[in-house]
Amino acid sequence: MQCALYQAGVCRSCQWLEKAYPQQIADKQRELEQLLSGFAVESWLPAQESGQAQFRNKAKMVVSGSVERPVLGILNRDGSTADLCDCPLYPSSFRPVFDVLKTFIARAGLTPYNVARRRGELKYLLLTESRANGQMMLRFVLRSETKLTQLRDALPWLCERLPQLAVISANIQPVHMAILEGEREIALTEQQTLEETFNQVPLFIRPRSFFQTNPGVASALYAAARDWCRELPLKSMWDLFCGVGGFGLHCATPEMSLTGIEISAEAIACAQESAQRIGLRHVRFEALDSARFAASEAGAPDLVLVNPPRRGIGSALCADLREMAPPYILYSSCNAHSMAQDIALLADYRVARVQLFDMFPHTAHYEVLTLLVRQGL
């Protein structure tokens, strides 16, 4: 992939951009194999590659500059700013939206936040696109509600020029820290859910719910989990750290009992909406802490699927899984280092199958799907 921003030294977020893509995949696969070298992996599946450009469905833009000439992009450690509106990771549909938003910022008087001076109101713009229907979600991250009335008053102008903006909200993030968003979300449009579809499974995105940023590879990841589960004798399943329910909704059958657990109530609402759309009857989605839920349950399902944050599932949940001893554990990880540490704590399981998914091209990061089978099965 060619990137003028990288070549000019403006942005170096894609640390591996100078490395040929086949070499990127080979290096990631080599690292993964080294991390799992202490386990007898029975089957290595070929790595799932990604498109090299325009694969992201979300942009997180720091807003800097002046209200008359806003800059959308990144803020470097030395205080310099860089405009990333031409970033080749974004689909071509994003650039016209960025151009209109720059004009809108001036019309609405949304003063960009100045980190050094701790002044201004508009900190970030977060833009997400549905590949299913082209609708978009736009979030304004503000320091306070000071400019909220001006934002509301100017919104009809923006919606008239960008009718694809189906979901708009304002997030209030008052602290002077590198935190992307705050706890309070203010809806600015009646619609507050963006619909996406992966493998004919409807999924829903709300402003504060997590969603994969590489829909092409995410679709392949969910499809692989579904196919692996269909090969197993399953009647019940837990989907822990389930987010909006992507894994569980792909893997469940009408006859299967599915329980999805996620700390975010907003994500659980999305998962429940998807389950109703699909028509699954034996489904339970709840907003709970996954580790506490597992510790409180008396029995175990046939399969436990875990999709934890980068820290992994941790020793406490590993201990609970060892005690419950479900026949199968399906582990989806965005950090193979913590996954390997967790697998070492699950000594009663053999590593039956592993596959790498290149969710983050041009970086050292990747996703992994691993099937663990209880010893003796």
TrEMBL record:
Residues holding S-adenosyl-L-methionine: 212, 241, 262, 307
Keyword Iron annotated: yes
One Pfam family in the UniProt entry: tRNA_U5-meth_tr
Record flagged with keyword Iron: yes
Residues annotated as the enzyme's active site: 334
Any one GO molecular function term: 4 iron, 4 sulfur cluster binding
Superkingdom of origin: Bacteria
Binding site for [4Fe-4S] cluster: 3, 11, 14, 87
Signal sequence coordinates: none
CDD domains hit by this protein: AdoMet_MTases
InterPro entries in the cross-refs: 23SrRNA_MeTrfase_RlmC (IPR011825), MeTrfase_TrmA_AS (IPR030390), MeTrfase_TrmA_CS (IPR030391), SAM-dependent_MTases_sf (IPR029063), U5_MeTrfase_fam (IPR010280)
Family (UniProt): Belongs to the class I-like SAM-binding methyltransferase superfamily. RNA M5U methyltransferase family. RlmC subfamily.
HAMAP family noted in UniProt: 23SrRNA_methyltr_RlmC
Its biological purpose: Catalyzes the formation of 5-methyl-uridine at position 747 (m5U747) in 23S rRNA.
Protein's name in the database: 23S rRNA (uracil(747)-C(5))-methyltransferase RlmC
Gene: rlmC
